Amino acid sequence: MEDFFNNIKESFTNAVLEFETINIKVDSTQWIETHEQLRDEFNLKFFSWLSAVDWDNDVSVGEAPKESVTPCFELITCLSDVENTNLITVSTTIDKSEPQIDSLVGTYEGANWHEREAYEMFGISFANHPNLEKLYLPDGYEGNPMLKSFELISREVKPWPGDVDVEGMPEDSESGEQVDG
Amino acid sequence: MTEVLIKVGLLAGAALTGAITFTIMDVKGASWMQRRPGPLHVGLRGFIFPVAEILKFIQKEDIIPTEVDRPVFKWAPAYVMVSCVALFAVVPLSPTLVVADLELGVFFALAISSLGTIGVLTAGWSSANKYSLMGGLRAAGQLIAYELPLILAVVGVVIQAETMSLVGIVEKQIEWGVPFVVGGQIVGFLIFMVAATAEMMRVPFDMPIGESELTMGFMTEYSGIRFLIFYISEYMNMFILCAIASTLFLGGYHVPLLPTEWVNFYGPIVLLTKTAILGFILVAIRWSQPRFREDQLQNLAWKILIPASLVNILVTAIMKVGF
Amino acid sequence: MVNALDPQNIKNFSEASVSVEIETEDMTLNIGPQHPSTHGVLRLVAKVDGEKVHDVKPVLGYMHRGYEKLAEVRTYPQITTLVNRIDWVAGFSNEIPFIAGAERLMEIEVPDRAKYIRLILTEMARISSHFVFNGAYALEVGALTPIFYAMEDRERVLDLIESVTGGRFHPNFNRIGGVKPAAGAGPTTKKNIQDLPAGFYRDTKIAMQKVIEAADQFQNLIGGNEVFKKRTKDVGVLTPEIAEAFGVSGPILRASGVKSDLRTQTDYLPYDQFEYEIPVGENGDCYDRWDVRVKEMVESAKIVLQAIDSMPSGPLQAKVPKVIKVPKGRTYVRAENPKGEMGYYIISDGGLGPYRLKVRTASFSNISILPNLLEGALLPDLIAIMGSLDFVLGDVDR
After folding, report:
1. C280-291 pLDDT, tens per residue?
2. Which ranges of chain C does DSSP label H, i.e. alpha helix?
3. H or E segment at C331?
4. What is the span of the domain harbouring residue C108?
5. Confidence class of residue C19 from pLDDT cuts 50, 70 and 90?
6. Helix B166-176 × helix B224-249 angle, to 10°
7. Number of domains observed in the structure of chain C
8. Which residues on chain B are in Cβ contact (under 8 Å) with C225?
9. For chain B, what percent of residues have pLDDT higher than 70?
10. Cβ contact B–C (≥3 pairs, < 8 Å)
């Protein structure tokens, strides 16, 4: 892991090793080139997954970020080397007003379905994708469910009982009582 | 007229009894091979469950989808049933206990048995279902392909027996002292059994039904009594083909060393025992084998069975003329 | 009126018949969502030319439950319940990478005994999953009996899982920092927690021995069957290159000849303590995929037996705060599940629940090669290939 990280660090100076996961941030224009380089130079031929994160301060589900963030989509891919332990995540940010990026299908064929998922769930469009249509959702479905602004209707109607449980706890219990076992 | 009616009644009764017996054997055989109890609750340790099964199917709604070709869809099961029942007419239980001892008994049996193909094909075609259609076409292809080795395997017997009457064939075997399967027709017997299994559309040749591929093949859209007719016909077919195989190859109603003057008494028992043994082998194969693929099935028929049966005929003829 | 017997007409007819071409049209066949062999509700839209299949288009989403979205509104302990239901054939192994991820972010060191119990139950989940595959796959190629044997043998393993966790399919047994104190051990029995049920070691040894025997029986009865070999050998060959590009993992990847096993490559559980082999196939066909899984069952049983023998004592739980808040950070934890690589990418913002949870499931990537593998296959092969990928729809759609 350390050796691999040092290797990566030589090519990508901004690589971070955090919680046993290496992450490199690239500019969205460098998206394809980075992946090609990782695939060919670092032998990361295994395409694990691709997904996106919706960063927003104004959320209608879950908790808003504690510190203010710049609203954007973060696109993350995970590549690995099947015979070794090497694993890396690559991330980039795309502007929310016009979420578009080049498709990775030419580099990794397996990106196809993952990009379709990101397309329907976040509304990110992938240029040069061979078949960019909905994957899970029915044809007439409107909206992008994974956006933070997309409400969970059932949650609005009936609050989740688990929520009540946790809210009832005292705020300071984090350092206080502990379970022993 | 009365005689004809009685005979028809006897035929139908015999066909139904045969089918029910084989149903029990199949289900009990399955539960024995699969280490599970099987049917237990209806009647004597579950042994009359086919009766309950039949009553259940009769009560069920006979669903006919809107898109089907109604008359064809309705009558297709009857074709299959008739072809099976008619076969019972020629199988002799003893020299005198036979509905019709036809001069061309073998010919009649083979001709009638191919009638079922029409029923299966029309059932698949008229169902307005793609799975049914594929099942029907597979069935047609399979039945045509295996009709040939079935007939050619019998030709060897006919050459050896010098007659096409089923009683005559059995009498010839009594005359010889040993059944044909020992007296030179072992290859013919094996080919006949393989081809017969394919004709019955049983595992490993059950692609026309192939429930993991085609849901239920040509029977997909059938329900209620029409499904029951297909279901019963399958077992009738199995019973009667086993009986014909016993007659042609295993000495029919006679076993060597038994006195021929008592044949009317032991004949039926002997024949049914032989039929049941063959049936049991089929049951054991059904519950232990996977299914062939469609092209492998055709290859087996056209590339192995048919050449083998032709060679069988040639050898039989040479032996007949030479010795 | 045409006189067919007129010599001139006969000549015309015979000439005409040469140039006539029969126009055929491929039939579109919908396989699923209700079909006996689609493991639930997968739908394939295929063009069928006789028995030949081409242009297969999988249609997903009939089982989509939106777990990634739901995870955003739940706390970490609540999410364990959700992830249990992703691959329901091996419910226990779904929890492991998620819990491990949360523990990594919180920097909790899990006690050894808890790790061993997790490992034993994970391997049992793998065995039960492979039993289901064995029975179901035989059923798909037309053999009706093996499923009964497989279910009977799986029952012993499920009974063991049940005796420890109280659940057969959805144990919900892992807690952040360890495993759940055994059933019945409430606040009153805090000091005297009985972790594994009485007789567990003995029963496990018997059951694992039976698993090894059952695997042997499968090798003989199914693997040795000529018809089975004919149906599966050289069918649906998957090359390692394609498999890697599509993210195909687990037994399917190993059947293609790649020696890749996350149990040895990562340290989410102490697999380095045990000796076992990684079965690898040669051709990457359906038979190899089947074979690798049967061999894996034996290896898993061996791991369990070793773990039982070397089980450390100690607590089941590390000290964790009562309200679990995961510090800010992001991590990806992957684990070798029965179906392949399963991973959770957790982005935590320091709250009670994750800001974003990406669930990487094995079956999703595994079946994304279906259009490639099925091009030009025969319809019976389609079923055989699909079955050999051993997917669960909950694992595909999430």
Report:
1. 988 888 899 999
2. 7-19, 67-71, 76-83, 91-106, 112-140, 146-165, 200-218, 226-232, 240-245, 251-255, 262-265, 286-309, 362-367, 370-373, 379-388, 393-397
3. strand C329-337
4. 65-385
5. low
6. 40
7. 1
8. 289-290
9. 99
10. yes
Is A143's Cβ below 8 Å from some Cβ in C? no
The domain in which residue B40 lies consists of 2-322
Q: Which residue type is seen at C126?
A: R
- Find which of A109, A151, A160, A174 to mutate to test the C interface (most C CBs within 10 Å of its CB): A109
The CA distance from A70 to A51, in Å, is 19
Q: Would you call B7 helix, strand, or coil by DSSP?
A: helix
C chain contacts of residue B293, beta-carbon cutoff 8 Å: 230-231, 378, 380-381
Using 70 as the pLDDT threshold, list the residues of chain A that sit under it.
Answer: 154-181
Predicted confidence (pLDDT) at residue C6 exceeds the cutoff of 70: no
What pLDDT score was predicted for residue C127? Answer: 92
Tokens of B95: 């020299």
Give the CATH fold of the A2-151 domain.
Beta Polymerase; domain 2 (3.30.460)
Interchain pair C347, A85: CB under 8 A: no
Confirm whether C5 is domain-assigned: no
Nearest by CB: A21 against C332, C349, C350: C332
| Closest approach of B26 to chain C, Cα-based (Å) | 13
Chain A residues inside the 8 Å CB shell of C244 = 45-47, 82
In a domain? residue C29: no
Q: Do C321 and A51 touch (CB under 8 A)?
A: no
Mean pLDDT of B120-141: 86
Name the residue ranges covered by the structural domains of chain A.
2-151
Does the pLDDT value for residue B320 go beyond 50?
Answer: yes
pLDDT band at C298 (very low <50, low <70, confident <90, very high): very high
Which chains are within 8 Å of B by 3+ CB pairs?
C
Contact (Cβ atoms closer than 8 angstroms) between residue C187 and residue A179: no
Please name which of B112, B89, B111 lies closest in space to residue B102, comparing C-alpha atoms: B89
Indicate yes or no: CB of C149 within 8 angstroms of CB of B34: yes
Q: What integer pLDDT is reported at residue C294 of this predicted model?
A: 92
- CATH number, residue C343: 1.10.645.10
Interface A-C: count of C-beta contacts within 8 A: 156
